[in-house]
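Table S2 (continued). Query chain:
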Amino acid sequence: MIRSRRTFLYSLPCAFALAACGGGDSKAAGNPANTPAAAPTEIRISAIPDFNKGKLEETVGTVVAFLAKATGLKVVYEPSSDYSAAVNGLVANKLDLVWYGGLTTVDAQDAAGKDAELLACRDIDLKFKTYFIANQKAIADGKIKPITDLADLKAMAKTLKFTFGDKKSTSGHLMPRHFLVAAGINPDQDFAGGAAYRASGGHASTMQAVANGEVDLGALNFSYYDKAKPEEKAAAPIVFTTPEYVDYCWVGHQRLGAATLGKIKDAFLKLDPANADDKKVLDAWGAGKFVAADPKAWDSIRQVKNALPKGFLE
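Corresponding output:
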């Protein structure tokens, strides 16, 4: 059973007793706009639930301790039930710092405006990609084969059962859909029975569905796949790799204040793989290092989002 607050609570001794608790934003508290926000004593963090929740909790746990040390504040992990909840939580003063995918980063920017500050992303997030993977038996039976041009999939699509991840997943849905459409393939009409959607379980669910033959073909995060077990990869080989695009990012809310946001950003950017403790964090997040996030880099994701049919993401 998921509790409203996880036990990832870390704090360092503070020199002062402060009244606010991770949410001194003047708008959220109903204060006049020119009234300085009280300094936070707590940072509420979360992440989009794009893979196994137990594993996600473990991964986020690696960030909690080092952020507490870097900021001198209590850091609390608040699990998000779905992608939209992660965005709404930042806007509604329930979350202060969230690990978003490319699409949810844009959603947070659009919903919170200048209050949403893009802090840092992994080196791999600036050159992210999606793998299309196929069931090994489907390959052996000649239903599908590895391709170098996604347009070549169209002739095979009518006999293939295909699955996406959650509609809010950048690497599991938004971008593979974008590349399919650009190749002249309508995923909702051209595959056998239309495309399926995996609203829960994230990339692990897609991997399992392809590997066990529930579907013939699926699209998922390359980083998740690269860390999968050899037997899973053997059961679901890669048949196509998409072009690169920008994806995940840590986004903080201005209610934390410039000083705290600066400490958080610096903490991520200073993670050094030569340091054993830092390496644990980097390895857990699949990063060689973290780099500063340029908000303009996510404009390309916004363009893809805006090209979707009206109401598609609702």
